[in-house]
Design brief:
Length: 299
């Protein structure tokens, strides 16, 4: 089981050693399917339900894959079940579709293969909608997030001048697959030492690497970095402003009927105010969007 929040310094190291914080299996199993208070009163939207593929509609459930290690978006509660505003929003989508959410906790980089393999119906794990990912799956965009760096309190780190530094990231994120390779190449082309990228299976571990001095900085999605700074008290500070804003998207199989059904469910949540309430309650409303675009990522 992963720790719920990032712990300061020595306590963090001890907690990580005791809990075995890395997802070592392809799928850790299902979380609860009980509706949260924020979604318990949501009524199914008949227009969205009508768009569902017959097999999913008949099953009565929406199987959702997530890597619950990215607070405050998605992480594990004290009982090991997925929680966070992204989980609440996906639960609300299931409610709009008249389905029961069935959560499957999995490694981040195995979620898309499991969708394409038919094991999961949808992915909800702070996926950045990119052109490369669009080649294999569809995205229903629902949020705008940027990348934000953080460093130890009192230490100045400039993401644009980070050659030779150690930077921690969560494996499989856009910071790992896109940002760091581009920055490493820029350093090499300039004749400077490359950034040393420290990759971790979970964001908690990536954050703790900075807290305990193993990394000079971390790079993550803006709401995640801000939550990490808050969770560590005075240990971390933001390094500059967020950049490279891009959409988060719920993931579905390429060209599937479910894509349109999920889009209709998200737009229904936007129309009745539930979407705004969920984001506002979590303090992440700054990234709200006005419509659920399919495959809106442009890079």
């Amino acid at each position: 089981m992963k720790i719920r929040v990032v712990l300061p310094a020595v306590a963090a190291v001890a907690a990580l050693a005791l809990t075995g914080c890395v997802n070592n299996s392809d799928s850790e199993g299902a979380g609860g399917g009980t509706k949260t208070p924020a979604t318990s009163d949501i009524k199914a939207d008949s227009a969205a339900v009508a768009l569902l593929p017959k097999d999913i509609k008949d099953s009565g459930k929406l199987i959702i894959g997530t890597d619950a290690s990215y607070p405050p978006n998605e992480y594990k509660d004290a009982n090991g079940n997925p929680t966070g505003w992204n989980v609440t929003l996906a639960d609300a989508i299931a409610a709009k579709l008249g389905l029961k959410p069935e959560w499957q906790v999995s490694k981040f980089d195995s979620i898309i293969p499991n969708i394409n393999g038919g094991k999961f119906n949808m992915g909800s794990s702070s996926f950045t909608d990119t052109l490369e990912r669009q080649k294999s799956v569809d995205f229903i965009d629902y949020y705008q997030a940027g990348t934000l760096w953080a460093a130890p309190k009192g230490k100045t780190v400039n993401p644009e001048d980070a050659c030779g530094l150690k930077v921690s990231v969560q494996s499989g994120t856009v910071q790992d697959t896109d940002e760091m390779p581009a920055r490493q190449k820029a350093c090499k082309d300039a004749g400077k030492p490359e950034i040393q990228v420290l990759k971790f299976d979970g964001q908690e571990e990536a954050t703790n690497a900075v807290v305990v001095g193993k990394a000079d900085a971390l790079s993550a999605d803006s709401p995640v970095t801000l939550a990490a700074i808050k969770a560590t008290g005075d240990s971390l500070q933001a390094s500059g402003e967020s950049f490279d804003n891009a959409p988060y998207g719920f993931v579905t199989a390429k060209d599937s009927e479910l894509t349109k059904a999920v889009q209709a469910a998200v737009e229904s949540l936007m129309k009745d105010g539930t979407y705004t309430k969920i984001l506002t309650d979590a303090g992440v409303e700054a990234g709200a969007v006005k419509e659920a675009v399919i495959n809106g990522g442009k890079s």
